[in-house]
Amino acid sequence: MNNSLGPNVAFNGVEKSHDIILINTCNEIEGKYVDYLSTLSKKEVIPVGPLIREMKITMENEGNDSKIITWLDKKDESSCVYVSFGSEYFLSKEEIEEIAHSLELSELNFIWVLRFPLGEETNIENVLPKGFLDRVKEKGVIVEKWAPQARILEHTSVGGFLCHCGWNSILESLHFGVPLITMPMHLDQHTHSRMAVELGTTMEVVRDENGKLNREETAKVIRNVVMEKNGGESVKAKVRELRNKIREKGEEEFDQVVTRLLHLCTNNKQYEHKMT
Predict the structure, then answer these.
(1) What is the DSSP letter of 5?
(2) Mean pLDDT over all residues of the chain?
(3) Angle at CA 154, nearest 5°, toward 81 and 71?
(4) For the whole model, what pTM was predicted?
(5) CB-based contact 134:154 (threshold 8 Å)
(6) CA distances from 227 to 48, 78, 110, 139, 244 (A)
(7) Do 47 and 26 form a contact (C-beta atoms < 8 A)?
(8) Where are the alpha helices (DSSP H) in the chain?
(9) Which family does the record assign (predicted)?
């Protein structure tokens, strides 16, 4: 179950809530966990997701967004991997170098969003392996700070999403039918990744006994998912299956949520009227 704020905050929220708890998930993804939480909390837990953040185009980012989409337009279907690790975790120089080598070894097209701590002025060339940008200039795009994630994931050229396994990233990836390659970093991301593996929607990058990344193994996992080999084909099929189920049932389930909430509000008003 999604819990990005830590267990204490999540459980306090459950305890302070009323008879109904709304959560950003859906039965196709976490049905059994939703039922378990309902039993555990003795409250009605209702999935209302996946809620996907609307893509807003501003004058500030419109030019850069257009360049990215134009670049994707020139690539073959499902030939690119999108790489992003969210806005709350910043890769170490060692991790950046290993991921760079992995992408180069994979020989795939890629879009990689690189972020650094606020106020930290970093020259991208200084953190990447020497000569990397020149070697991948035909295959790769490095984007600083921010990219239109939803627009990228819905593009037909994207065949895999290498990510930290943040909850929003999982939901967006499944909504757009993009297979996941997970590289969890901290907090609840490891739990999310295990759940995604259990669902059959991801292949996880496994670190060594010291928690280090292995560039050859990472490249292999990326290629397997994007090229649909050695298990990657079943991941792709499962993601497509889930995407279709979510879209088919989405509006129906949301209508049921609205009906249930309206019924609850009506009952509360009737109760309050009797009390007065």
Answers:
(1) T
(2) 86
(3) 60
(4) 0.85
(5) no
(6) 33, 8, 13, 16, 21
(7) yes
(8) 7-16, 27-41, 59-73, 93-106, 124-127, 132-135, 149-153, 167-176, 189-199, 215-226, 232-275
(9) Belongs to the UDP-glycosyltransferase family.
